[in-house]
Amino acid sequence: MMLEYEHGKKRKVRNRQHQHQPKAQFLSLRYLTICLCCFFVLLFFFLSSDRISVRSDSLRPSLRVPALSVLSSMDSIQRSFHGRFPPLRVEDRVQFPDHVLLILSTRIGRGGKELVCVYHGGRKEETLVLPSISSDEFDEFRSVVRCPNAPLNYSSSVDLQFDGDLVKKKKKLSDEKKVHDWAKVGYEAVIDGDTVVVFVKGLTRRPHKESNPSYYKCQFETGVEVFVTQALAAAQEVVRCVLPESLKLNPEMFRVSVIHIDPRGRSTPALPSVARVYGSEKSSVVKVKKHELCVCTMLWNQAPFLREWIMYHSWLGVERWFIYDNNSDDDIQEEIELLNSENYNVSRHVWPWIKTQEAGFSHCAVRAKDECNWVGFFDVDEFYYFPTHRSQGLPSKNALSSLVSNYTSWGLVGEIRTECHSYGPSGLTTVPSQGVTVGYTCRQANPERHKSIIRPEMLTSSLLNEVHHFQMREGVGHMSLLESVAVVNHYKYQVWDTFKAKFQRRVATYVVDWRENQNQGSKDRAPGLGTEAIEPVDWNRRFCEVWDTGLKDLVLSNFADQVTGYLPWQRQQQLQQD
What we know:
Layout: H1 2-48, H2 67-81, E1 90-95, E2 100-104, E3 115-120, E4 127-131, E5 134-137, E6 143-147, E7 159-162, E8 180-181, E9 185-192, E10 195-201, E11 210-211, E12 216-221, E13 226-235, E14 238-242, H3 245-249, E15 254-260, E16 276-277, H4 279-283, E17 291-299, H5 303-315, E18 320-325, H6 332-341, E19 346-350, H7 357-368, E20 372-377, E21 382-385, H8 387-392, H9 399-408, E22 413-422, H10 436-439, E23 442-443, E24 450-454, E25 477-480, E26 487-490, H11 496-499, E27 546-547, H12 550-559, H13 568-577
Parallel strand pairs: 1-8, 17-18, 17-20, 18-19, 22-25, 22-26
Antiparallel strand pairs: 1-2, 2-6, 3-4, 3-7, 5-6, 9-10, 10-14, 11-13, 12-13, 12-15, 13-14, 15-16, 20-24, 21-26, 22-24, 23-27
């Protein structure tokens, strides 16, 4: 009897469970449905906010959507997310004569094809979208994007977004961000020991002269505090100031600008500035064995000529390369990556500031000081050559590094100057396939100017330079080499298709662009050319007074493949063509 009771009790419990199971399953499905609905609603509002940018075709909600359509929409959203992190945040804008530079607080990579510039009109509240010119990684934390100048009646306070995203409505006038005028702005800064070197437009344009540092101060903004310190040195576009004690002890990100003080002691407001310094720049300096010889250059669209220049001078003993890229839109980054894969130590520094070659060289001298004993400053079309080594049968490999090493222990020599010979088209009408050192062999008879290799720690604190040479601190001089010892072959006047690029713009601060009707007799211009890029009928025969095949013979005997005759930079060109 007891056994039947127990079995009956279990059957009642099981029947009770079966009676409640459909209801429980119904409630579970109901809760699940509610949760899913809430999730999609929250997701929709989250993606619709300004925090994340998505394509317009992902923002079309409807009341009844089949399950397959939901999955399809989710795939679309995922495709929209791809490559969209982090979001675009424009922190500064600088107005140049031919474009607007946008500085982003995040890194977005090089290219810019997926980015568009958004312009807002005046009274009609119109919006115009134009493709960006280019984008690039600026430094460790930021990126830059170049946008076309704002059309007439549109604000220069340009916005940025991904191509295909919903265009944002016009901002209120009070919400528009300030656009800095390139003629008057602090644009770069770098820590140098216990000081900060600031690069600024609009203070003084006295070329090749130092200024009174008592007329300047630096203002540091951390977001929490503001510090002001006195300038120690000033020249051209460079002001060096004391680094505040609190920033020495606790380095962090700060913005730095310059204050001008007139002779009566009256201060003007700090100039606008986009110059930022990150604490990691100071803390990341590690003491390592210095390279004996490094080279710094500033270039624009020189990727096709970079390989020959670096391979040849590496053979002469250059160990480290600092490439300051002044808005190139060719394959310079890819070429540098390829060279580095072949164990050439090359770094590219994005330098978006137009006509600031002197400032760029000063900036590079500070950067290179901890890595290099000597730093050469010369262009991609300039090649060192040692005539005595060639004539006496001496080996030229590592000749340049050996030369500077001989002066490393000389405490009174801070600069080595070498005369330049300017070469002409040498009868050619097309770019020489074997490179400039082999292709151009006819030059002018007399040397023209010089190039310098300097000791960075022996420069004056103002970093004053004239592109071709720097000013040394008191008591330090320079050594000028005889032409028989060393000379720089400057392939200045190449075939017209290459040479005419010089008419686009010049990189030096105090050199007038060739399209401007000024200083037409200057050595910075080509004799006989006007202000327009029109090829003279006899261009390929100009600037030819002396046939000189010394460097050509050296290159062919030391670099050419014994079987094919190809030069290493020429062989790479062949591989690229194949």
